[in-house]
Each structure stands twice: as structure tokens, then as C-alpha cells.
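Slide 14.
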Amino acid sequence: PRSQGLSPEEEQPGSRGGSDPLRHARAEPAVLFRGGQGPCAGGLVDRPVSLSLADLRALPARTQITRHDCVEGWSAIGKWRGAQLGPLLQTVGLKPNARFAVMHCADNYAGGADMYYESIDLVDGFHPQTILAYDLNGQQLDVAHGAPLRLRVERQLGYKHAKYVTAIAIVDSFAGIAGGKGGYWEDQGYQWWAGI
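Slide 15: predicted structure.
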């Protein structure tokens, strides 16, 4: 399920037709862990929080050199730096029925009502290599690679590495989120678990 012959990583928001992937983002990007209802329905956290990019940069960071593996068969090695997702999940306090972290992104990829999204389970959320990356190869992340913030979930294929992350919802199910399969590519027929 591809268009223009691009892989999911190449075809992610902002790569087609000169689209500006940040057109829906705030002037100062923030990651929201929401409670209650709203655009990020669910929010199974005890302490919702909004963190600016500066807030995330002020947290302890992890730097890792890892290989990005695309479902199309290519790979690339990069040096990523960012805040580990696990400690952030601990900070917001997960409700007992929390099962998944859904990354909401700053692009209306398909042009419809639903914004681009991706998800992981909490096992991957707490893995030490799962980070919200803001630097690549010693430089601030650029738009082509997912700026201002990109999920890096190193145990899975590249299409799970959501670009342009603006909000994270903690949910117990994907029901009611876009196509209900846990991600834009999954809604197009890709497998939800993309382990390598």
C-alpha cells in the first residue's frame, strides 16, 4: 500500500508535494500527555503534562547509534539523541488499564479528517532505547528526519518511528482512533507489530 513508489519512511508526512509537516504544530512544539477527552482521546494518565521541546532537552538524554531498518529493505545508521520515553511514562503515572502509547503527529498525511498517528505497546514504551529524539548525528533534527521530535523505537521497523510527534495519548484500545488498527500504515494493511 504505497504511493509514488516510496517506502513508508520516505513517504511519511512532509515528503510529498512540498507539504509543510509542521503546519498544524504550535510555534513552540510540545508533547502532551493528556487526560480526559479531546483530540487525543483516552489519556489514561494520572498526571497529564505538557512539555516543550526545551523541557525535553532539559531532561536526562540518551544518545544511541542504531540502524534504521525500512520495510522496503534499506537501512541506515544514525546517532540519535533524545529523552527516554519510559521515565516520562513513569512521571505521568499510568492508569491500570493503560496498554498503548499513541503518537499523534503534526501532519494531515492523507488529507482527510484524521492526522497521522502511530502506536507502540508499553513494553516498547519502557524499553531503554525508545526515545523522543530531537538530535541526529550531533545536529538538531531537521524536518526531513522528523523535526522537531521523532519517536525512535529501535526494536521495530522504520514505519513505527513516528515523525513530527506533538502529542502522546495513553490508551487501552485503538477503537475510535482513525482506522482503529494502531497507525496510519497499519490502517493501510501493514502489520501492527513490526519487530526486527
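Speaker note: Residues 89 and 126 are 8 Å apart (CA to CA).
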